[in-house]
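Researcher: I'm preparing a figure for a lab meeting and need a structural model of a single chain. I don't have an experimental structure, so a prediction will have to do for now. The sequence is pasted below. Please return the structure as tokens so I can convert it later.
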Amino acid sequence: MRHRRSALFGLLAAVMPAVAGCSSGTGIPALDRGPVGTDQWPGDKSQLEGLDRQSVRFLVSHGNADYFAATSADGKAACLFKFPVGEGGAAGGCGAAGGSDAIVEVSAPGAKMILVRADADTMGLEGEGWARIHENILVF
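Model: Understood. Here is the structure written out token by token.
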């Protein structure tokens, strides 16, 4: 019995880092979970060109808009999109998913937002008037 436990522990110790290595590495926890009912792209499907359609994740509703994240088809970029509720337009952008706190800043009419890693230090930005509305989103 004792040898079985040691073997099981050794197997788990070998497998756990491999499983942990499967995460996207973007710093966006929603992109590391499976899809749920709210993860439905609200825009035109043509907007998903170049993106991994299976990676679309709803992040938060704030004001009169819904915010979504997705990854590029090659997994090297993370994207943020804002969809005003009841309107047809959307604003969004993608940036390199890596070690940088700020992944992408999007400035468009009616939208000024930054996609950040969940562990990003945003105190300086918040001191400049940005508001953190989600662990991964700041708006101005």
